[in-house]
Design a protein that fits this description.
single chain; alpha/beta; Nucleotidyltransferase, domain 5; 2 domains; five-stranded mixed beta sheet; 10 strands; globular
Length: 290
Amino acid sequence: MDGKVALIEAGGTKFIVGVGDASRRIDARTRIDTTRPEETIPAAIDWLRQQGSRYSAVGIASFGPLDLDRASPTWGHITRTTKPHWSNADVAGPVGRALGCRVAIDTDVNGAALAEWMWGAGQGTGSTLYLTVGTGVGGGAVVGGRLVHGIGHPEMGHIRMPRHPADLGFAGHCPFHGDCLEGLAAGPSIIARWGASLSDLPADHEGHEIIAWYLAQAVQTFQAILEPARIVLGGGVMATPRLLDRVRRMAVAASAGYFSGDPAAVIVPPALGDDTGLLGALALVEQPTP
């Protein structure tokens, strides 16, 4: 990859837009509020044009769901989403046409998974799974150097979950599935139950054990399916003190002796910090062509 690369981390709350290069240096960046597609996308394009670069490619790591079938007339579009105004929005097309270069687009979690495998917590392994736990729950996986796709991209946040015995009265917060992983462990579900974020609850509050239990069940499930060498847990909820240690301990219990490897080495925090989103967009540009 030669020259400058336009980078877009397209989130449901904000777009982070930057300019990078093959050395993984981010030369400039800005934040744009996610309002409506007809406002946010042109604002991102205008800023990128103002940087005065001739771009070799654009990397977009976006919230979803996304249509990633290049043969589809709606490739690069967001499909059905709970984000108002964004269902069926074309994200890739306007950016590629405006900047006159190729576009690499995938979900934000797939971008993060690829970046952590290439340069971060999963570097040097054959497989890495990235799970973000924040406003929503999403996941992506790299196996054998390639992102896992089927007819679409993974929706790991929507796996069905067993119920914690102390949480049976909560219906779940997912508008599609109720008590899937996202509906039980994402930030809004925590607030819906207990009126505060997990990090703001008292240290002895039952919410800490309940959320860790759900995440441990998810970790055990993904380990059973993929046996990744790294399971990287990121997102705002995971910033809660001692949550990662609780998840490790409960994942071992959930696996009943089937867990492969040292949980402290397998279940890890992200290594790329605040640059994970933009580096995820860069990783999508640099990944090998299928």
